[in-house]
Design a protein that fits this description.
heterodimer, A: mainly beta, Ubiquitin-like (UB roll), 5-stranded mixed β-sheet, B: Aldehyde Ferredoxin Oxidoreductase,  A, domain 1, Aldehyde Ferredoxin Oxidoreductase Protein, subunit A, domain 2, 6-stranded mixed β-sheet, about 40% helix
Chain lengths: ~80, ~600
C-alpha cells in the first residue's frame, strides 16, 4: 500500500531522499504496516513526537491504511 | 519595600503609596487586578477619568529568575467592557522592578484633550511629566527615535509608548514596550489599552535604571540553586529547549493546519494550503538566508529565546517575528501566503500601535464582507493604513472585528465579549473554545492554553474533537496561567512546568528564597484562584452574565472542514469552569 509521509521542523532532514522540506513523500509499505515501523525505517531520534494520521492524533502502534497521510512533528509549541 | 507610584493626569500630580499589607503576595496581574477592583467603578467609562491604567512587574522581575520579567498592564477595557490584563515582554518590567515600583497607576484625565505628556522616571527615583504635544500622531518607531534623542548617550532605559491608534482612542489600540535593542516591538496588545493610555493624554513612559544592579534576595544561595534548577528544566524540555528557540512561536502554523485547527479565510476552514509558506520552518530559512539572526530573548534574563527579527532582502530590520498569532491573523485568516507581506502588516500595526490579532481578524471579516478579496495583502495594508484618516471603514476597522463586521452585515464574526478569537478554531480544538468562552478577558488563547493537551501532547492528552474533559482542562490552565502572570513569569515556562515536576517545585522555591516568605504549591494555586475571582466578580458587577460566557451561535451550527465539526461543549460544562469562585471570594472577604 502507499502512504504519504510528511515530516516537520528538524525531522524534515530525515526524509530518505535527503532533500528536506515539509512536502509529503509517498512510501510503499507492506500491508498492516504500523506508524512505529515507519518511524524506525526513517531512523527518527528517540524523543517525544506528535503524530497525526489524516489530521487526527494517532498512536505509534496504530496500523496504517492505503492512502493515509502520516505527519510527524518533534515537540513544538508557541502561542 | 516596593511602592505604588500614582500619576494623576487631572492635576498632573505624582505621589507614592504603600502597597496595602493584604496584597503582600500580589504582583503582576494580581496587583493590576486588585487596584482596578478597588479603584475603578465597574460602570466607569473606560475612556473617562475614573478608569485607571495600571502597569506592574512581577515579584521576580529584576532578579536572575529565568523568564521572570513579564509586564502586566491592566484597566477596564474599552473593547470588552470588562477587566483587562494584557501581558507583554520587553524591558520595562525590569526597569520598574529596579526602581522599587510595584505598580504604576495612571489615573484621571487632562482638562485639555489635545495635551500630550511623557512621564519620566529617572534612576535616582525622581519623576516628572513633560508636555510633548509636538509628538502628536507619531508612530512608535519614530517616537522611539525621538525619545532616544532626549536621553544621555550612556543611559540605560526602557520605554512604554502609545502610537496614533491609541491617541485616536481606537478600541484595538495596544501599548508598545521596548525590547533589549530599543525597538518598540513588544506589545500589551489586547483589549484596547492603548486607547486608555491615549484618553489620559500619555504618549510615553520612560524608565531609566542606569547603574542599578540585580535586586537582593532574602536567601541568595537558595535562590541561585532554585533558579539554576528552573533554568535546567527550561533548557531540557523539547519545547522550551529546542522547538521555540529554533523556530519561534510560528512553528505552530504547520501543526495547527495539520490538525485542522488553523482558522482560514475568516474561520471558514481549519487548514490553509499556504501554511508551510508562512510557517516557522520557512521563516527561519528566510531569515538565515538574508543574514539575520534567528533567535534572541525579548528581554534580559530569557533563557528560551523564541524572539526573532524579520529582515528585508537587504538584511535590514522590518519588525519582530512575525509571531505565530500575527502570521496567522494576516496570513491564513486573510488567505495571504507571503511572509514579507505579513511582516509589512505587522510593522504597520507596530508603528500605529494596533493589536495584530484583532486587526487580522477584522481584516478577514472585512474581506468576508466584500471590502477586499481574500489573499489581497496590498488591499489589507491599504485598508489598515486608511484608519489614520479618522473616518470611514479603516477607522471602524481599528475598533475591531465586531465593529467592522456589524457595519458590513457579516454573518460570521469570531468574537467573545467583543474581542476577536486568536489562531485556533474552537470547533476542532474544543478546549480552547472553553477558554475563549469563559475567560474574563474576551476571546484569548493565553488565558488557558489548552492547545498543550489538545494538540501538542504537553501536560497529558485530551482529544481536541471531543467535548469530554475540556472544561476541567481549561479551568486548571486558567488558574495556573493567572498564577504565572501574577509572578511575572513568561507563560512559555508552562510547557516544561506541566511535564517536569521539579520545574514547578523550583518556582515556589525561588519565591520563598527571594521574598523570605512561605510559598507552598498550594499558595501558588490559591494566588491563581484569587486573581480569577477578582476578575469574575468585577465583570459580574460590570454587567456580565453566563450568557456572555458563550461562543457565537454559528460555532455550534456551521461545520468546519476538514473534520466537519461544530463546537459541542455543553453550557453546563462552560458554567462549571469558575465553580471555585464563591468559596475563594468568601475566603478573601469579597462579595
Amino acid at each position: 500500500m502507499n502512504v504519504d509521509v510528511a515530516l516537520f521542523a528538524y525531522l524534515a532532514d530525515y526524509q530518505p531522499d535527503g532533500l528536506g522540506g515539509r512536502a509529503p513523500r509517498s512510501f510503499a509499505l507492506e500491508a498492516d504496516a504500523t506508524i512505529a515501523s515507519v518511524i524506525e525505517s526513517l531512523g527518527l531520534p528517540d524523543e517525544p513526537r506528535i503524530v497525526f494520521v489524516n489530521g487526527k492524533h494517532a498512536e505509534e502502534p496504530d496500523v496504517l491504511h492505503e492512502g493515509d497521510r502520516l505527519a510527524i512533528f518533534p515537540p513544538v509549541a508557541g502561542g | 519595600m516596593a511602592q505604588i507610584l500614582r500619576v494623576n493626569m487631572t492635576d498632573l500630580s505624582i505621589s507614592r503609596e504603600e502597597v496595602p499589607a493584604a496584597w503582600h503576595k500580589y504582583s503582576g496581574r494580581a496587583i493590576t487586578d486588585a487596584i482596578i477592583y478597588r479603584d475603578v467603578p465597574p460602570d466607569a467609562d473606560p475612556l473617562g477619568p475614573d478608569n485607571e491604567l495600571v502597569i506592574a512587574p512581577g515579584i521576580l522581575a529584576g532578579t536572575n529568575a529565568p523568564n521572570g520579567g513579564r509586564l502586566s498592564i491592566g484597566a477596564k477595557s474599552p473593547l470588552t467592557g470588562g477587566i483587562k490584563e494584557s501581558n507583554s515582554g520587553g524591558q520595562a518590567a525590569l526597569g520598574l522592578a529596579h526602581l522599587g515600583i510595584a505598580a504604576l497607576i495612571v489615573s484621571g484625565k487632562p482638562a485639555d484633550p489635545s495635551a500630550l505628556y511623557q512621564l519620566t522616571i529617572e534612576a535616582d527615583g525622581s519623576t516628572k511629566l513633560d508636555r510633548v504635544d509636538e509628538w502628536a500622531g507619531l508612530g512608535n518607531y519614530p517616537l522611539a527615535d525621538a525619545i532616544k534623542a532626549t536621553r544621555p548617550e550612556d543611559d540605560r532605559y526602557s520605554a512604554i509608548t502609545n502610537g496614533p491608534a491609541g491617541e485616536m482612542l481606537a478600541r484595538s489600540a495596544g501599548i508598545a514596550v521596548s525590547d533589549p535593542k530599543g525597538y518598540p516591538n513588544r506589545f500589551a496588545g489586547r483589549g484596547g489599552l492603548g486607547a486608555v493610555m491615549g484618553s489620559k493624554g500619555l504618549k510615553a513612559i520612560v524608565i531609566s535604571d542606569k547603574g542599578i544592579g540585580s535586586i537582593p534576595h532574602a536567601d541568595k544561595d537558595a535562590f541561585v540553586a532554585a533558579s539554576r534548577r528552573f533554568t535546567e528544566a527550561l533548557k531540557s524540555h523539547g519545547v522550551s529547549g529546542t522547538g521555540l528557540p529554533m523556530y519561534g512561536t510560528n512553528v505552530l502554523m504547520n501543526i495547527l493546519s495539520e490538525a485542522g485547527g488553523l482558522p482560514t479565510r475568516n474561520f471558514s476552514s481549519g487548514t490553509f494550503e499556504g501554511a508551510d509558506a508562512i510557517g516557522g520552518e520557512r521563516q527561519r530559512d528566510i531569515i538565515l538566508e538574508r543574514g539575520g539572526r534567528s533567535n534572541h530573548g525579548c528581554q534580559t534574563g530569557c533563557v528560551i529565546q523564541c524572539s526573532r527579527y524579520w529582515v528585508d532582502t537587504a538584511g535590514e530590520y522590518v519588525t519582530k517575528g512575525p509571531e505565530y498569532e500575527t502570521a496567522w491573523s494576516f496570513g491564513a485568516n486573510c488567505g495571504v501566503d507571503n511572509l514579507d507581506k505579513i511582516a509589512d502588516l505587522d510593522r504597520a500595526c507596530g508603528d500605529l500601535g494596533l493589536d495584530t490579532i484583532e486587526m487580522g481578524a477584522a481584516v478577514a471579516v472585512a474581506m468576508d464582507g466584500g471590502l477586499a478579496s481574500f489573499g489581497d495583502a496590498d488591499a489589507a495594508l491599504a485598508l489598515l493604513n486608511s484608519g489614520i484618516s479618522g473616518t470611514g471603514d479603516g477607522r471602524l476597522l481599528w475598533d475591531g472585528a465586531e465593529a467592522i463586521g456589524t457595519k458590513l452585515g457579516v454573518e460570521h464574526i469570531p468574537v467573545v465579549k467583543h474581542q476577536a478569537m486568536p489562531a485556533y478554531d474552537p470547533r476542532s480544538v474544543q478546549g480552547i473554545g472553553v477558554t475563549y468562552a469563559t475567560t474574563t478577558q474576551g476571546a484569548d488563547h493565553t488565558a488557558g492554553y489548552t492547545i498543550t493537551s489538545n494538540i501538542l501532547s504537553v501536560g497529558g492528552v485530551v482529544d481536541p474533537l471531543s467535548p469530554e474533559g475540556q472544561a476541567t482542562l481549561s479551568s486548571n490552565l486558567q488558574i495556573a496561567t493567572a498564577m504565572l502572570d501574577s509572578l511575572g513569569l513568561c507563560i512559555f515556562v508552562a510547557f516544561p512546568v506541566l511535564d517536569i515536576p521539579a520545574a514547578f517545585t523550583a518556582i515556589h522555591e525561588m519565591m520563598e528564597a527571594h521574598t523570605g516568605e512561605t510559598w507552598t504549591a498550594d499558595d501558588l494555586m490559591t494566588l491563581g484562584k484569587e486573581v480569577l475571582t477578582m476578575e469574575r466578580l468585577y465583570n459580574a458587577k460590570a454587567g456580565f452574565t453566563a450568557a456572555d460566557d458563550r461562543l457565537p451561535g454559528w460555532m455550534r451550527t456551521a461545520e468546519l472542514p476538514p473534520h466537519n465539526v461544530v463546537f459541542t461543549v455543553s453550557d453546563e460544562d462552560l458554567d462549571s469552569v469558575f465553580s471555585f469562585v464563591p468559596e475563594t471570594a468568601a475566603a478573601m472577604g469579597l462579595s
